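Hey Z.,

So I finally got round to the protoporphyrin IX containing FE thing we talked about over coffee. Here's the setup:
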Amino acid sequence: MNQGTGVAASGRASVPDTLRTAANVLLPTVAQGVIARRPKVVGAFDRLDADRRAVAHMQQLAERYGPGPVRLNVPGRSFALVLDPEHVHRILEGSPEPFATANLEKRAALNHFQPGGVLISHGRERAERRRFNEAVLDTSQPVHRMADRIVATVRDEAEQLAAQAQGSGQLVWDDFIVAWWRVVRRVVLGDGARDDHETTDLLSRLRAEANWSYLLPRRSSVYDRFKERLRTHLERAEPGSLAALIAETPQAAHTDPVDQVPQWLFAFDPAGMVAIRALALLATHPEPAREVREEIDGVDLSTPQELRRTRAAMLESVRLWPTTPAVLRDSTTETTWPTGTLPAGTGFLIYAPYFHRDDRTLDYADRFAPEVWLDERGHGDWPLIPFSEGPGVCPGQNLVLLTTSTFLACLLRSHEFRLLGPDRLDPARPLPATLSPFDVRFAVSDRGRP
Ligand code: HEM
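And the result:
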């Protein structure tokens, strides 16, 4: 990372640089919807390749100010941009003390549908909730202890989706996401929730409001209806679902599952975006696609397993287009940096695309490089953090990679997917920095395999 000169010493961005950061980084991130993506806005920013500008702007800031963190010139809030890889690790490894996951802006947003969620909790409550999440989600296990059932569900829905797509000759986002949500509801809440679109719709409404953070109050009636439906599903504790595991997992005073499960449902949704983008990458990159096919053709997909290459394609999709672009922390004490001291209560923004797409450091920044995830040394200490890292790392990472990779594997095993659009995923050109999942379309044909 280049050391800046002059202005670097203060670590405080000038007013014009603060305004440029707002226009190039903060506004596009917020406008596209932090909690629920707004398809039309995403489409508009996709055409502008907005994240490319954001990354270029962050690079300019790093040139100008050095390693930072760079404090923005905002009245009433101490807020800093993290520009140095070592600072990323320091902050994420130092969560939740002195870098709390329960950041001010995140709390305001997530309060709309998960006021007692682990991500916006602190202290003892957070510790209890984290333990509960890890216990049910089997955080450390690549293959969840209930994988037999999960894999059977995923296969069932993937087969139905593939048959439908073959019938129409096409696969589009709207069909893909309906099938994906069926998987999610069945895995989390049980088969009885398969067609409960209403619970998903209520959550979508709450998430749409959460995009407005503290500008909108929580709509109690929608939240109450959502919680009621969720509680009914959880009380069913249907065998084979996470709800059943919840019922047999010891709970502490602050681990009401109705407060924890909304994050799971919410987080499974962008996994569908990651999956359809991975399918688009595989449809346009023959060599990685050949390797993935070799992997899935050589195994029995009814046996739960870690499909390493298919997972790597998913990880690459979420590196290229992170679904949590803004990882936020608030400091709980004064913290000291090369640029000076920042007060307790400073918000730190780690803008993931800046690190994931840094073409000054990564020769694979703008290409599809699943091999990076297959070799531990692939990215060394460089922060590739689509699932965050440290004590606040996503506890659902292994579960979501198991479900999505199996879903993709089942589709690819039986069918060919030819990308009809968008037309910007050419292996010979840098991949776009922004890619709307809502416009991805495939022509589908049978591969003649069961
Ligand atoms: C592609 C899908 C997913 C991605 C990219 C992802 C990414 C992340 C990231 C970056 C964080 C940290 C956020 C922060 O620090 O502000 C996080 C937290 C979390 N994720 Fe995921 N996630 C995904 C799916 C899931 C799923 C399916 C579940 C549960 C079934 C889940 C459960 C959680 C929970 C409970 C937290 C809060 C952890 C804590 O604060 O200790 N995630 N996720």
